[in-house]
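## Example record

The block below lists the input lines for one assembly entry, exactly as stored, with component labels intact.
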Amino acid sequence: MTTHTHKDFLDQRHLPHIWCPGCGDGIVLRAYTMALAELGLAPKDVVTVTGIGCWGKSDDYVATHALHGTHGRALAYATGVKLGNPDLTVVTLMGDGDAVTIGGNHFIHAARRNIDLTAIVVNNYNYGMTGGQYSATTPLNSKTTTSPLGNAEPGFDICSLAETAGANFVARTTPYHIVSLKNLLKQAITKKGFSVVEVITPCPTYFGRYNINPSPVANMHWLKEKGVPVAKYQQMTEEEQAQHFVIGAFVNKDRPDFYTMYQQINSRNGTEREGER
Amino acid sequence: MKKKQWQFILAGTGGQGLILAGAVLAKAAISEAKKVIQTSSYGAQSRGGFSQAEVIISDGEIYFMKCDKPNFILALSQAAYDKYKDNVTSECIILYDHDTVISNKRMNDKGYSFNQRAIELGNSKVINSVALGAILKLCPILENESVIRKLKEELPEKVVPLNLEAFEVGYREVTP
Amino acid sequence: MNRPVGKQFMQGNEACVFAAIDAGARFYAGYPITPSSEIAELCAEFLPQVKGVFLQMEDELGSMAAVIGASAAGTKSFTATSGPGFSLMQENLGMAIYTEVPCVVVNVQRNGPSTALATRPGQGDVMQTRWGTHGDHPIIVLSPSSVQEYYDLTVRAFNLSEKYCTPVIILTDEVIGHMKEDLVIPQLDDLEIINRKVPTQSIEEYRPYQTGDDDIPAIAPFGSDYIVHISSSCHDETGFSNSKPQTADKLVRRLHRKIDRNIEDIVQVEWFGARNADLCIIAYGAVSRTAKQVVVDAEEKGLSVNLLRIITHWPFPDAQVKEALNQAKAVIVAEMNLGQVAQEIQRLNSSHTPIYSLTRIDGEMIIPSQIMSKIEEVMRS
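Predicted structure tokens for the full assembly:
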């Protein structure tokens, strides 16, 4: 078996990437390609499916098979890819807009269906590519270019949504926590069924500038400070919790995935199939 | 009894098996190398609402697929009868259920006790087979044997004998 | 699966499913909608029996996306819907055209717009199939008028789709979808089945969107040794996004060229009645059946009438329609919409032949007497 390094999963022709200084997307991409290499996969085994947005541009830099489609539909394409060839490792790279705003319907149903896909959701709390408008994860009161005085809507908790909808593996981390990021991605990709890794990522150009700090370094510090492991988070008061977010793996179960169930149920014989006439 | 094209409308209530009866008629005609079209219409509810099957049987190509000049109407409900009584030619036979339909006594109206006879046979669901027998009697454009063969093929085995009996009853008791 | 063969009696939508499976379809994703739902139900029953997958998606946006995904993974795929769902599919129909992913979309038309008369037939989506998705794009649309033709054109739709790497739409209507009719299903060996081109370059030199003189790419399935990059953004031969103006121009012009240069292979019509008749009816789908009856009835009345039946809606049969316009003294276009095709015919009317648009939008079929009165009216004038 040929072993691959993370570089084999990157298409060098299109680097350097277009992301702003201080953006976490490059770090997540590095963690993703490292995870693929460490799992012993080859570029031909993997289909990277992306949507639209900053993180949706990441297919430009991958050397796996790739499908870059319309806004919000990455999971729907990926569902087709997986059922069209169940031997493939299919990973969707989506932002908060793709995953839980315009594509929210596909997200909950992919989780409910428990289709064997991995969703790496990079959450920067706003639409970076189109100029920093609010998304479905932008917190209440936050300033964005479409909520200049503050956001009147509360944001979704992506992990709670995935857990409630039925995902087999749910985790949250940040690009600051690079080692845990890579390890969580490996677990997610290996897990049969629907896996979600939410990566809270700085956007110093928009969300960070308006709500945290314009400095890339300050945004990284913010991630370090705000992201706390489960055990520590549980010891916090409610007020403290509201000022932080919890990182780590929250769901890790083995509910049978869609295709396994589909094959099992459809192997029933004719008499079971027929029912009453 | 030579006629190039025959248009049948089997109308009544959902659950009377009219669409199945239409299909049996159609498949029997196909087995005799005729051309056939069946269309159906029914309301939003699957059971209890208005239901109708239209079957066109022809020796040649059928172009227009709707029964615009019906030769024969089976009316197993008042709604079915009322829908057609004033919209068909005087030659068109309307065979109605004597038990549930009040007829205007058109020249070619024919009543028969479909509901009652089906119940007497032991299962109201065989009303469609009684009707098929009656239809073949009044419009002998197909061989009885063709229809009987299709009834055997289309119905679950355990209900075949009763339906064949129902067919015979309809054929024997309805007279031109 | 117990494949039906020989003389059969089937519903239109049923024939479509058997044809799709015969053509090699092994994936269906869709959302139930009247009057197309029988296609979903039969796929749910039969696809698993041929090791295929039926998937009921959460909506038609996702259905179309899943169809693209499965086809990109090498599995022939299709979906079926009606007007409201077809509207939702426009987004990813454009994606399939632009990324050259073969697939088949069946639109069993109902009365519109919006929810309208949900169970009644209509033909109001003709222009939507042409221009429903944004941007300049070619499209292939086929319109059957019998159960037999629904079967035949479904097989053909998959073949054209695979041959030209593009989605093909079967545009039918409630009448053809729901009516039962006799048809003959051929032996599998007697069917011509076309599969998409396979790459011949070396793995190192492979570029999925590179084409030869035929303008048709050889896009390998995901998972093959050829790495494939598919992008809804403007892309070059590598498949990667590329925003150069010349790339954008070259790609869209090639997409049109690959269809335009094969018009003769793609376009089909049927002439019915005397070719040199005084009056020509142009119709398609269910309404063409009414028109055929009228041609026969007219002959009995000593009226000189023929029918040009459109089978391929898009690309439009310009040459055949021009022939009709040049030959006949008048043309009647009968359709269950407010003259969508009549306007397209007017575009070709350099001979200034009188064109009469006969329309119906109440959810009822155009009946023979309606066309016959129009003929008599036209002949009097």
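The domain at 5-173 of chain B is CATH 3.40.920.10 (Pyruvate-ferredoxin Oxidoreductase; domain 3). The first helix of chain B runs from residue 18 to 31.
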